[in-house]
Model the fold of this input.
Amino acid sequence: MKKALSLLLVGAMTLSLAACGNSSKDSAATDSSTTEESTTTEAADTESEGNGGAAFKIGGIGPITGGTAIYGTAVQNGIQIAVDEINAAGGINGYQIEYNFQDDEGDSEKAINAYNTLKDWGMQVLVGTVTSAPCIAVSEETHKDNMFQITPSGTAVECVQYDNAYRMCFSDPTQGTESAKYIGENGLATKVAVIYDSSDVYSTGIYEAFAAEAANQPFEIVSVEAFTADSKTDFSVQVQKSKEAGADLLFMPFYYTEASLVLAECNKQGYEPVFFGCDGMDGILGVENFDVSLAEGLTFLAPFVAKSDDEMVQNFVSKYEADYGETPNQFAADAYDSVYVVKAAIEAAGATPDMSVSDLCDAMVGAMPSVTYDGVTGKSITWTADGEPSKAPLVVQVVNGEYTEL
Amino acid sequence: MKTKTRNLSKTTRSNFITYGMVVAAYIIVEICLRAGVVSSLLEGLLVPLCMYVILAVSLNLTVGISGELSLGHAGFMCVGAFSSAIFSKCMETAIPVSGIRFFLAILIGTVFAAVFGILIGVPVLRLKGDYLAIVTLAFGEIIKNVVNVVYLGRDSQGFHISTKDTLSLGLEEGGEVIIKGPQGITGTPNDSTFLIGIILILVTLFIVINLINSRTGRAVMAIRDNRIAAESVGINVTKYKLLAFSVSAALAGTAGVLYAHNLSTLQAQPKNFGYNMSITILVFVVLGGIGNIRGSVIAAVVLTLLPELLRSLNDYRMLIYAVILIATMIFTSSPGGQHIQERIKQFFERRKTKEA
Done:
């Protein structure tokens, strides 16, 4: 009996494997037939651009479950808004966009699975991935397949180490260096204390660049304290040490949830330095049960402010609020821009959906140097060959409980 | 003579079915690969599948055969992964042939994990049941956290190590950072292949199955079933327990090597080397049947494939996965479920007798 059962299971397994294989084969076959069709129809009448059959297939990868789900969901929504807008306005070069977003749970291994799923679906351009480590793993695969990749929020340097990969956000070192320069040039402080999350790539990357640049600036770092993902609820020790070191500025390169706790702890201990943060601070005024007055005077660098008067930002923010009932953060904004950058690159390259993934990538990479993009996270952004965007960070300060651009 | 082979063949035949299953799976997948009918998703999952099978089989040795509940299996995997990744990264230029380098990496990962298995086993195996589970759980977390604070760099002066940050390594110009604290190791060569994975599964099965059916295995099981009785007939309890535990740890290390060389980034996160992972492996073992090696293989494959095949359900994916898991557990292990199983069996048997 047992044997029969195990045989049955083996049979079921092989069947399921075969089923996977078959379905992919079918889809591949239909894919090639549709592309053939589209080329023939195009050859037949070249005037009509908007033929319905072909479409650019854009894939997205990010965590929509697990601890970093908040970032992945924001990116998923941001891309969706951009795709809807573009499709409503007639698509790219007259072709519509198809969009598919897969969950990677913030894990490198799952990210590869998500990438392969999207490949089976027929993805031609990848907007992702959201977090750094999975992004590095996936960029290895896109490099192998020569697929165009733009990450909205993968900040680690290695995310864009290959020619086919571009980035929409600032890299970690850029933020650290810019922060140190800003503090030095504006004479905000002479003694600086740093608290950072040593278990986080983002935070560590910024801190390291900050410390390196600090050597060239007219202030000194008097105290460096770390915390980890496992111990991010109590900051009394770190704040105490910063206070004892006599620092007049506290640099906080981490996300707003922890920052709200640090600010509350400083208030409790009667410690009032200048608070300085990075783009992760965006959203601090929305933290539940947080006394907003504590954040008064907090200064941070950000690519995007939802309260900006800019028309594009207003349009994006109102759409996002209408669709998802919350104010978009920088992840959503970067994702939204990423899709438009893909559009700009495809238009500059004059590419069509019937091109192979590799040809499309080559054409888009070739066109990227000529792309200058105005979006919600910056104006006249250009890209260098190494995939880094050139955009100036905005300096934002909390004044009277509102984000204000300085 | 004839009766002798028949007597022998009961366990042997069962073992050959297990080996045959793996080989058959390999041949089928390989044919599909050649024919180009395998989806990219499945192609990408082949090496992880091998890895999970090895992990499940090796944990079954501790949980099923030795009867100790270990929740630190991911910790040993982590040791194997990091030690081998450091080796591969340092030797990438020195040994350009990937086959030889990977073979050495497997040996190093396995040996390191075994050494840790012995180190942990000596004090820990004095404990039993829940206490052992808690200590092994703590061990797994310690390994993960230690790896997360280590910074290791290399330049012409040799290795530099620090627990603070990359700046305090004091590397010279041209030195490279190998472990970058919580950011782990990036740029490990992708040496893992499906063939190597299958060979490692076969080696694992060979070791575990032969261990179980040997004098040693019988001693280990005797200790599991009745420790006092085993001691009274002169079985060295500490020795056999430690042996089973460290072999299990070593094999987990091998799986770690496969993991580290399958992706180009290696980070010790709660997700991959934390207790979540240990629990996941335990689920494979429990669902496949404690002490049942073939069951572990099948459960590992099915439970790894399932969430990926459910991707079309989008947001409900993990929910459905959990529901299926609970349903399977109830069906296989609860009295009610077993009753249903019995009735299904009876139904089939009645039909058989009717046909006859």
